[in-house]
Amino acid sequence: MSLQVLIALLGWGTLVGVDLVSLPQMMIARPLVAGTVAGAILGDLDAGLKLGVIFELLQYDILPVGAVRYPEYGPATVAAVATAHGAAGALGLGLGAVVGLVIGLLGGITMHLLRRINSRIVSAASAALESGDPRVLVRLHVGGLLRDFLRAAVVTALGLGFAVLVPPHVTFVLTPRGATVVAGAAVAAALAAGTAGTFRLVGRGPNLAWFAAGLGGGVVVAAWLR
Amino acid sequence: MAAVTPRFGRALLRLFAVQGSYNYERMLGLGVGVAEEPLLRGLPADGSASPYRAAVARGAHFFNAHPYLAGLAVGAAARAEHDGAPAELVERLRAALCGPLGSIGDRLVWAGWLPLLSGLALAAVSLGAGWAAAVAFLVVYNIGHVALRWWALREGWKHGVRVASALNNPILQRGAVLAGPAMACAVGLALPLAAQFLAASFGAWGRAVIAAAAGVGFLGLYFLPGRVTGLRLGLGFAALALVAAWVWQ
């Protein structure tokens, strides 16, 4: 991976990380989009699409309501695709997913920490906010935005660090058969999370029949295309 | 209304960053205050106890709702301030809007529009549409996204304290009702296609093992919610697979 590609991935991962919550929530943070663009940057669209689908399914397990804590799969998908590109083949898919899951976990932790830091800053500025000075309000808000930019950049940089450092060491340890096992585990976890998350969204009401109809249609199309 | 148009545009733009300073103390409060501020500029602003300053301070108080619909509260509160509503009424209005805006937004967007289009995009990628599916997802999703933000701010500004009537808008109600079945059908369609897409590079035995592992994982996720999450399952499966791969050289 050249320096230019790494910088482009860092920029893309940062935008993706900020989009999730702060600005502008246009869903470039969805793994399918984040992974596809990361794949295009690397010239490896296949890895981008496959890992995008894996993390998109994992994303179904998350419903971002209220102040719920959740992993951050956007920059994680960028890191996963970069790792997969560095490792290539079945090893790439499995290893990329593992790196992506670790970065997703770290991203979620940093989001929670950022909210706590924001809370302290806002609490300390309560009196100034109650004065109704719009400059104080805007300064606090922009400060939060900038901290999220920094957070997203650090998480992405960490993921890209993994992507550069991990594959050369693991390719010596894992055989192609072992790599297939890791890739299969990632696919199984994604399918389980996608199905369970969908079931929770659908519930046991009338939507269940619509889900069954869609599922039946999907099975027929999949069988027909085999 | 016409004199407010540039301010309306500024408020709308600021709403895209309404969660920029998200925190556990005031949740979206600061972002809502920042978005509301341009709409408050017509209020008397002389002195530190002016109506403008009091309204800016109120605008930044605790607020939590769906970010795409927060504009409804921003517009309504700003209109109420211009109409000279008492401070307590504005505070009550904001508090009363949190629940309904959160509930409708979650049903309409997080549990409807977003997974519906994500499911269709997953199905399209699995059927070979490639990057075009991701682009189509972004374009279509954001047509609805931007329209919803614009509608919410406009309706809030139009109705003021009587904003509850906007929530009864037939398009909004009908959308919330239709989004659920459409989402269920689209994601149902996508799951087997995505499974086939991802498992295509594995042999017959590999596919059988993946199906069995996915079944066990699904049972864990479904019957032990909270304790088993997608992330924990993924990390657990990955750890087991790495050990198995190391042993099975």
Based on secondary structure, the structural category of chain B is mainly alpha
Strand content of chain B: under 5%
Rg result of chain B? 24 Å
Helix content of chain A: over 70%
Following the backbone from N to C, one meets helices and strands of chain A in this order, namely HHHHHHHHH
**Largest contact between chains:** A-B, 111 and 104 residues
How helix-rich are the residues of chain B, as a percent range?
over 70%
- The radius of gyration over CA of chain A amounts to 20 Å
Low-confidence spans of chain B: pLDDT under 50, at least 5 residues?
A: none
What is the overall shape of chain B?
elongated
In whole angstroms, the N-to-C terminal distance of chain B is: 73 Å
Q: Judging from the principal axes of the Cα atoms, what is the shape of chain A? A: globular
Largest sheet of chain A: none
Oligomer: heterodimer
Terminal residue distance of chain A:
36 Å
* Mean pLDDT score of chain A: 94
Mean pLDDT of chain B: 94
Counted beta strands of chain A: 0
β content of chain A, as a range? under 5%
Give, in order, the helices and strands of chain B: HHHHHHHHHH
Compact overview of the structure:
The complex is a heterodimer of chains A (226) and B (249). Chain A is an all-alpha fold and 226 residues long.
Can you put this structure into words, describing what you see?
The complex is a heterodimer of chains A (226) and B (249). Helices cover 83% and strands 0% of the residues of chain A. Chain A is mostly helical and 226 residues long. Chain B starts with a helix and ends with a helix. Chain B contains 10 helices and no strands. Chain B is elongated, with a radius of gyration of 24 Å. Helix content of chain B is 73%, strand content 0%. At the A-B interface, α2, α3, α5, α7 and α8 of A face α2, α3, α5, α6 and α8 of B.
Topology:
The complex is a heterodimer of chains A (226) and B (249).
Chain A: H1 3-21, H2 31-42, H3 45-59, H4 73-87, H5 89-124, H6 126-130, H7 134-173, H8 176-202, H9 207-225
Chain B: H1 5-15, H2 29-36, H3 51-59, H4 70-82, H5 87-126, H6 131-159, H7 164-167, H8 170-199, H9 204-223, H10 230-247
Helix pairs in contact in B: 1-2, 1-6, 2-3, 2-4, 4-5, 4-6, 5-6, 5-8
